[in-house]
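Per your request, structure below.
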């Protein structure tokens, strides 16, 4: 799985997605969220799709002023690189919440990996914090 941690900037898949987001813009957020939310629970949501949805949901939270605690200004700037475009997207917060719901459900590889890890409580806390910040 490469580098992994419960926080956003601790896993390779999220970092890869964030680099793509920086280059391509707010459309990457919509695509990641809609892909995850649109994957039926009877189908498997793979690791990269889950990581992209999680990172995109973080972008949405930050774009709406709900910052994770302890994050550096450089990292906040990366998340908010296209913040005004993200805020302008229709129903973006509800789309992020729907994607998060799918990400933490059955048949999600990322969720399964964390549920089987020694750091399960860190993952659950990170997802609960993100849900709270999405409102």
């Amino acid at each position: 799985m490469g580098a992994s941690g419960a926080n956003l900037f601790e896993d390779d898949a999220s970092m890869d997605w964030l680099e793509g987001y920086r280059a391509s813009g707010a459309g990457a957020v919509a695509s990641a969220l809609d892909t995850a939310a649109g994957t039926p629970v009877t189908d498997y949501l793979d690791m990269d799709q889950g990581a992209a949805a999680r990172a995109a949901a973080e972008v949405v939270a930050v774009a709406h002023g709900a910052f994770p605690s302890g994050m550096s200004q450089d990292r906040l700037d990366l998340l908010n690189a296209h913040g005004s475009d993200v805020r302008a997207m229709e129903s973006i917060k509800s789309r992020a919440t729907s994607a998060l719901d799918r990400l933490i459900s059955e048949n999600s590889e990322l969720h399964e990996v964390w549920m089987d890890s020694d750091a399960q409580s860190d993952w659950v806390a990170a997802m609960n914090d993100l849900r709270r910040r999405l409102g």
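The helical segments are 12-24, 27-37, 47-63, 73-79, 83-87, 92-103, 109-115, 120-134.

Regards,
D.
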